[in-house]
Write a structure and sequence with these properties.
Number of helices: 8
Number of strands: 20
Strand order of the largest sheet: 6-7-8-3-9-10
Bound molecules: adenosine-5'-triphosphate
Low-confidence stretches: 348-352
Radius of gyration: 25 Å
Strand content: 25-35%
Shape: globular
Order of helices and strands: EEEHEEEHHHEHEHEEHHEEEEEEEEEE
Mean pLDDT: 90
Length: about 350
């Protein structure tokens, strides 16, 4: 439905967007994920018609958007600073787009009602924007973006200004809203949680270029390089040497059928490791790939407890076993590696 082809956008002497190709299908949610300054917003602004292209094309529903003003493009926009009109009430804010489209008053009213219901603010038309909480304001901004019945909904860091609890709450609601709106969605964020939670496909951007566009499980288990992995929080990477379909790693030999020979870097996925049950250091030598280490500390993540284990000159994280005394600092343990939960980075000499 949306086809961005070889788009370049230059500010003075620097390319903010450098040869980007990206598609969004009807009903598909695509997240553009990348660090601050990588060009995400510029790309989104270009699709909205707020930034001229230096090169490339943007086609929506088969129509080249070149020369179409922002208000002539069938897109809905929502930004981090929601930019609601403070002196108008909720209904006037949400009805703004449909009014600008020249729709009759009764249609504007119906669109407004429908959009507010969608974000669970039914009946809030006459409330003052200034009296709403931050989360409610963001929902009004979302309602305003969908009230125009866009073909493409574009959101730029829509949850960026919210505190953690509100952010999580809205994050949980967004998939249903997107599903009910039913149009394509382009979602810009620097937060990998948001991208992986919401998107059918994630495009990872760095310095104006897209490094990888993939479905979340693929991105997570087969990142193209260490930057993409690191940006997703995957940082358990070790040097290996591959020969005869096996990687010689600190865990011992790891089978990698078909992998290219030579030096490489092996990503150990977060779910690859557990503790050998009942195993102190030195036990389980015949249990497949493993590594002896010592518990450093416990770490509480949102929904589980992890043990930080020192082994082979670095630390690793494994799910903590149940039980009060299990995994006390100083306890010798044996890490067990699931050899199917690793990924060898395709690289110069080490690809595979
Ligand atoms: N109007 C402008 N004039 C000159 N340079 C700009 C302009 N807008 C953006 N840039 C530069 O272009 C690059 C990309 O900016 P952009 O806002 O697209 O990045 P971003 O990934 O969205 O970052 P953030 O999440 O911080 O907004 C940055 O280096 C930025 O400084």
């Amino acid at each position: 439905m949306l086809r961005v082809h070889d788009v370049r956008i230059r500010y003075a002497d620097r390319l903010a967007v450098d040869g980007v190709d990206l598609t969004v299908g009807d009903g598909e949610v695509v997240a553009v994920l990348g660090p601050s300054g990588c060009g995400k917003s510029t790309l989104l602004r270009a699709v909205a018609g707020l930034e001229p292209l230096d090169d490339g094309t943007i086609v929506l529903d088969g129509h080249d958007l070149a020369g179409r003003r922002p208000d002539q493009r069938p897109v809905g926009l929502m930004f981090q600073d929601h930019a609601l009109f403070p002196h108008r009430d909720v209904g006037d804010n949400v009805g703004f787009g449909p009014r600008m489209q020249g729709l009759p008053a009764d249609v504007v009213t119906a669109r407004t009602r429908e959009a507010l219901a969608l974000v669970e603010l039914a009946g809030a038309e006459r409330r003052e924007v200034t009296e709403l909480s931050g989360g409610e304001q963001q929902r009004v901004a979302l309602a305003r973006a969908v009230a125009v019945h866009p073909r493409l909904l574009m959101l730029d860091e829509p949850l960026g200004s919210l505190d953690r609890a509100l952010r999580d709450q809205l994050l949980a609601q967004l998939p249903e809203v997107f599903g009910r709106v039913g149009c394509g969605v382009l979602y810009v964020t620097h937060d990998q949680d948001e991208a992986l939670t919401l998107a059918d496909r994630v495009a990872v951007m760095r310095a104006g270029r897209l490094l990888q566009v993939a479905e979340p499980p693929v991105l997570w288990s087969q990142p193209v390089d260490e930057f993409v992995a690191g940006f997703l929080g995957l940082d358990q990477v070790v040097d290996v040497r591959v020969a005869d379909g096996r990687a010689d790693s600190p865990f011992g030999p790891v089978p990698l059928p078909g992998a290219r020979e030579g030096a490489g870097r092996l990503l150990v996925l977060p779910d690859a490791l557990d503790l050998l049950p009942g195993g102190g250091a030195g036990s389980g030598a015949h249990e497949g790939p493993g590594l002896d280490g010592v518990v450093v500390r416990r770490r509480f993540a949102a929904d589980r407890t992890l043990l930080v284990v020192a082994a082979a000159g670095r630390t690793w994280e494994v799910p903590a076993p149940r039980g009060e005394r299990a995994g006390r600092p100083g306890t010798p343990v044996r890490l067990r590696l699931d050899p199917t939960r690793v990924h060898l980075f395709a690289g110069r000499a080490s690809g595979g």
